[in-house]
Amino acid sequence: MQAGARGEIDAGRALTRVTAFSDGVFAIAITLLVLNLDVPRLSAAEQHRLAHDLIDQWPDYLAWALSFVIIARFWVVHDRLFARMARLDERAMVANFAYLAAVVLIPFASEVLGEYPDRVAAVVTYALVVGGATLLAWLLIHHALAGGLIREADRPETRVYGDRAALMRPALFALSIPVAFVSTGVAQMLWVATFLVGRRRR
Amino acid sequence: MQAGARGEIDAGRALTRVTAFSDGVFAIAITLLVLNLDVPRLSAAEQHRLAHDLIDQWPDYLAWALSFVIIARFWVVHDRLFARMARLDERAMVANFAYLAAVVLIPFASEVLGEYPDRVAAVVTYALVVGGATLLAWLLIHHALAGGLIREADRPETRVYGDRAALMRPALFALSIPVAFVSTGVAQMLWVATFLVGRRRR
Amino acid sequence: MQAGARGEIDAGRALTRVTAFSDGVFAIAITLLVLNLDVPRLSAAEQHRLAHDLIDQWPDYLAWALSFVIIARFWVVHDRLFARMARLDERAMVANFAYLAAVVLIPFASEVLGEYPDRVAAVVTYALVVGGATLLAWLLIHHALAGGLIREADRPETRVYGDRAALMRPALFALSIPVAFVSTGVAQMLWVATFLVGRRRR
Amino acid sequence: MQAGARGEIDAGRALTRVTAFSDGVFAIAITLLVLNLDVPRLSAAEQHRLAHDLIDQWPDYLAWALSFVIIARFWVVHDRLFARMARLDERAMVANFAYLAAVVLIPFASEVLGEYPDRVAAVVTYALVVGGATLLAWLLIHHALAGGLIREADRPETRVYGDRAALMRPALFALSIPVAFVSTGVAQMLWVATFLVGRRRR
User: Fold this and answer.
1) For testing the chain C interface, which of A33, A34, A81 should be mutated: the one with the most C CBs within 10 Å?
2) Can you say how many angstroms the Cα of residue D145 is from the centroid of all Cα atoms in its chain?
3) Cβ contact, residue pair A26, C28, below 8 Å
4) Is the Cβ–Cβ distance between D144 and D92 less than 8 Å?
5) Phi/psi at D135 (nearest 5 deg)?
6) Cβ atoms of B110 and B33 closer than 8 Å
7) D30 touches B at CB < 8 Å
8) Is the pLDDT of residue D153 over 60?
9) Where does residue A183 fall: left (phi above 0), alpha (psi -120 to 50 degrees), or beta otherwise?
């Protein structure tokens, strides 16, 4: 696929820079999540209830923790994928950017969820953004496998993230959308289930 | 141009650090765009219209998506340019900083556009900032070609971004400014046209 | 532990990327602290007291300075740790992410402390977040030592940060929590004492 | 100064990571400046004066541009310094962190200046922060020269930034503080003069 040593050096360079750029985006997105935690604004007379107000924000902390873990996992999978890639093509570049676009939306979806933890609209927003990211990650990995971008020796391990069974995760997020209209709690439990799915297979 | 191996190592080092710094700026700017998406602040009695209010912000999402794609494209072109450079001179440094200055303004211009999508002033602001970035990118590439900073073998491919025909893109943004006074919609269609311009030539 | 040259290259690559990602998170968290410094919003008639209002925010500046120094020290210790690691295992990855999660919460805890410097709830929040980060750093270092992840020659120097005596620092933060209910000032003096602890031993 | 190859590798590694961390901080600080540009919040009836309100913010744009150029110059000098260093010592580490602390305050000082461009308190704040950064940069460079951290061949060029004459720049910022009480305009002209100082000597 590559024409000689020059091509390989170029491929390595392109991979390095796309990896570094993606790492930057992941690191910024995971750190920006903290901006969703608001400091209560209390007058002097109200300050006695600072502890109460801080504790009262527990849905914000929960949304922050969920989103932190989700972005961290996305980064780990992305890290492994790019470690196993021999080269990039234009489609993989586009898929990677589309995936990053969904990742940077997570702080927004997380803020909506933290503010309105039991509103259907908030749960659907979160499922759309995170589920969308999950699907785009799958598309990126699937294309990398189909397009021969993965090093031969690393194909079996990579396949676990890019085969049909791996579609289970975006499917659970998709399923959580209609479920949210019945029960936002059950919908959120489906998200947690996605963690278990991955764990069992590896 | 360079005096021996030491010079080449220095040139390589300078390129690497300017590239890393620029990558950081691009990654931060593209991620900060998400801060333009506001979470509606609703009292308990108003929360039933969360879905409505979230959907009502569609111009914000559109401005976000447009700016994400624009910064991503800027990064790709910048990546290719710096991959093909053999060295930097002071002018290229200044041009690169001027270009980055325009890039970091995009989240601001994007927020203005998202808030007031059909105000002439917002459309002109966006055209000035993004069009300005396009022009400064052209100046950087043009100077890199004229100043012999591009590796001989890579000059033909680089020329597509730095010749007169490549001025079409900043020209379309410039044109969109007077057009915005007649129709903000047509002005925005001119921006989308800039994507097609590049695609046809390559 | 590693199977040949390929394993070592992979270990080096994984270390490099986790290091780069962690560095990014530290750099962003330390820079985001500045967003806690509010610019007073004054009407034209009130502007004569800008100096007064700026000086009046001294608890914010103090919280900023304390948090800046704390994150800087965390980074230095993290830097030394990763320089001495030969490889990573999954537990170390998880411990590193948990540690980073506590680090990115520092800007939030710092804002709470700056706004309400003598409220027990604010002092406890800060002690929980920063003390938690201190404990998670210790766990990471302790595991790296116990799991044989540190290069043989570097074990003695690393032990200073991962042995029982090094638990003094999280212990002081834990102690500051009950103390805060008696005196927030004494609690904060315990934090400053943690700086001296480290210094004496090295 | 260094004991063999291992020491040199360690020195190189430490330099690389401190450089990368500092670069991250510079890149984030220069990009965060954009958050100081506020989008006017106008009701439907007021939107006709969007252009007017955007133009009315010209002191914000000016403060942004000044701070962008100042951080960019800081980065360039920092880049050259670290390219010429052979190793770091603990003092240089501390000086570098103190310098970065001043750099990350620039977005705050810049916002104060943009909001209250002709208030003495705002001009003094800016002079303290940016002048402080200038002084700390000088201390870092001066120490690097005195402590033998700079490669022999690079000492002459580095001295221009770390000798007594280079103190002219922090001196001008210091001078601008009393001057601001007489005229904020003249004080700001002194800042611009610092750009000329550097240019003439090189």
Assistant:
1) A34
2) 20
3) no
4) yes
5) -65, -40
6) yes
7) yes
8) yes
9) beta
State whether A37 and C13 contact (CB < 8 Å): no
Q: Does D21 touch chain C (CB under 8 A)?
A: yes
Tell whether B98 is within 8 A of chain D (Cβ).
Answer: no
Largest distance between two CA atoms of chain C: 74
Full-model pTM:
0.93
Instruction: Determine the Cα–Cα distance for residues D36 and C17; give it in Å rounded to an integer.
Output: 32
Q: Give the DSSP letter of residue D85.
A: B
- Mean pLDDT of all residues in A118-122: 95
> pLDDT for A75-93, tens place per residue?
999 999 999 999 999 999 9
With beta carbons less than 8 A apart as the criterion, state whether B22 and D25 touch: no
Cα(A145)–Cα(A31) distance, rounded to whole angstroms?
31
Within 8 A of B47 by CB-CB distance, chain A residues are 116, 119
* Residue C14, CB-side half-sphere exposure with 13 Å CA sphere: 21
Q: Measure Cα distances from D129 to D98, D112, D125, D132, D135 in Å.
A: 12, 11, 6, 5, 10
Residues in CB range of B125: below 8 A, 6 or more apart: B109, B112, B113, D54
Distance CA D51, CA D29 (A): 28
Interface contact flag, A26 C21, Cβ < 8 Å: yes
Among all residues of chain D, which has the CA nearest to that of C40?
Answer: D112
Any A CB within 8 A of C14 CB? yes
* Cα C36–chain centre separation: 17
Positive or negative torsion for Cα D38, D44, D49, D51? positive
Question: Mapping DSSP to helix (H, G, I), strand (E, B) and coil, where does residue D189 land?
Answer: helix
Closest residue in chain D to residue C80, using alpha carbons only = D14
Q: If pLDDT is split at 50, 70 and 90, which confidence band does C5 have? A: low
Share of chain C above pLDDT 70, in %: 93
- Indicate the pLDDT class of residue D54, thresholds 50, 70 and 90: very high
Do residues A11 and A88 touch, judged by C-beta distance below 8 A? yes
Tokens 């109460």 -> residue? A52
Chain C CB contacts of A51 under 8 Å are 120-121, 124
Please provide residue C120's backbone torsions phi and psi, each rounded to the nearest 5 degrees.
-55, -45
Spatial separation of the C-alpha atoms in residues C90 and C105, rounded to whole Å: 23
Measured between alpha carbons, how far apart are the two ends of chain C, in Å? 31
Q: How far apart are CA C161 and CA C139, in angstroms?
A: 10
Say which residues have a Cβ less than 8 Å from residue B45's Cβ, sequence separation at least 6.
Answer: none
Report the C-alpha gap between A143 and A140 in whole angstroms: 5
From C167, C145, C143, C168, select the one nearest C156 (Cα to Cα).
C145
Task: Pick out chain B residues at pLDDT < 70.
Answer: 1-9, 198-202
Task: Give B109: exposed, middle or buried? Use CB within 10 Å, 0-12, 13-18, 19+.
Answer: buried
Q: Given an 8 Å threshold on Cβ–Cβ distance, is A119 in contact with B50?
A: yes
In a 3-state reduction of DSSP, which class is residue C32? helix
Q: For chain B, percent helix, then strand, then coil, each to nearest 5?
A: 85, 0, 15
Which tokens in the block code for residue A127?
């499922």
> How far is Cα D137 from Cα D166, in angstroms, rounded to an integer?
10
Task: Give the list of residues 6+ apart from residue C192 with CB closer than 8 angstroms, or none.
Answer: none
Separation between Cα atoms, residue C195 and residue C128, nearest integer Å: 17
* Angle ∠(B85,B91,B93) on CA atoms, nearest 5: 65
Please tell me if residue C98 touches chain A, with a CB cutoff of 8 Å.
no
Test mutation, C15, C97, C112, chain A, max A CBs within 10 A: C97
CB contact under 8 A, D34 and B107: yes
Query: What single letter denotes the amino acid at residue D71?
Result: I
Q: For residues A30 and B147, what is the distance between their CA atoms, to the nearest angstrom?
A: 41
User: Where do we find the tokens 């570094």?
Assistant: A20
Pick from C28, C42, C47: which is nearest to D28 by CB? C28
Tokens of C28: 């962003």
Angle (CA) C22 C27 C32, round 5°: 125
